[in-house]
């Protein structure tokens, strides 16, 4: 199993361009995820995926890989919010999208410290954003 995981990472790294915040490179789309088509689905995915990421505490290679995979789906829900909300909520969704992108890139490139920093930032924004679900009905 360990060799399989190591092999998977080797393949992932071999096919992944080194992405950095400064270069503005986009990560390679390794996984196709269905688009989110309703506010209800976007909220459900956002809450579930945020909880899944919160459960990852070790941030070892295996967990970073799992977080990377989760961000594909999370990105879709955040994208939906950014496109369909207005005002402050839309701005917050766009801020979250940037942080999710950073988590995506740093977890993909096996950078635990940077990923942890991004996750802490994400959880602050996500908590603020999720609090709005209770007050507003769209």
Descriptive terms for the model:
single chain, 138 residues, mainly alpha, 0% strand, globular
Description:
This protein is 72% helix and 0% strand. With 138 residues, it is an all-alpha fold. The longest helix is centred in the middle third of the chain and has 24 residues. The N terminus is likely disordered.
Could you give the distance between the termini?
Answer: 46 Å
Strand content: under 5%
Outline the low-pLDDT stretches: 1-23
User: Would you list the SSEs in sequence order as H and E?
Assistant: HHHHH
**Average pLDDT number:** 83
Helix/strand-derived class? mainly alpha
Note the total helix count: 5
Number of E-state strands: 0
What is the CA-atom radius of gyration, in angstroms? 15 Å
Shape by Cα distribution:
globular
How does the major sheet shape up? none
What share of the residues lie within helices?
over 70%
In short:
It is built from five helices and no strands. With 138 residues, the chain is mainly alpha-helical. Helix 2 (39-54) runs antiparallel to helix 3, helix 3 (61-84) runs antiparallel to helix 4 and helix 4 runs antiparallel to helix 5 (112-135).
Helices and strands in order, then pairings?
Layout: H1 2-15, H2 39-54, H3 61-84, H4 87-108, H5 112-135
């Amino acid at each position: 199993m360990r060799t399989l995981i190591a092999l998977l990472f080797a393949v992932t790294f071999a096919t992944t361009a080194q992405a950095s915040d400064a270069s503005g490179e986009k990560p390679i789309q390794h996984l196709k995820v269905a688009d989110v088509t309703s506010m209800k689905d976007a909220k459900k995915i956002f809450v579930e995926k945020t909880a899944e990421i919160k459960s990852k505490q070790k941030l070892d290679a295996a967990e970073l890989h799992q977080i990377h995979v989760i961000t594909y789906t999370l990105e879709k829900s955040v994208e939906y919010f950014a496109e369909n909300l207005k005002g402050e909520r839309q701005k917050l969704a766009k801020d979250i999208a940037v942080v999710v992108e950073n988590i995506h890139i740093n977890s993909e490139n096996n950078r635990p410290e940077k990923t942890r920093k991004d996750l802490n930032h994400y959880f602050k924004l996500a908590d603020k954003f999720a609090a709005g679900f209770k007050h507003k009905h769209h």
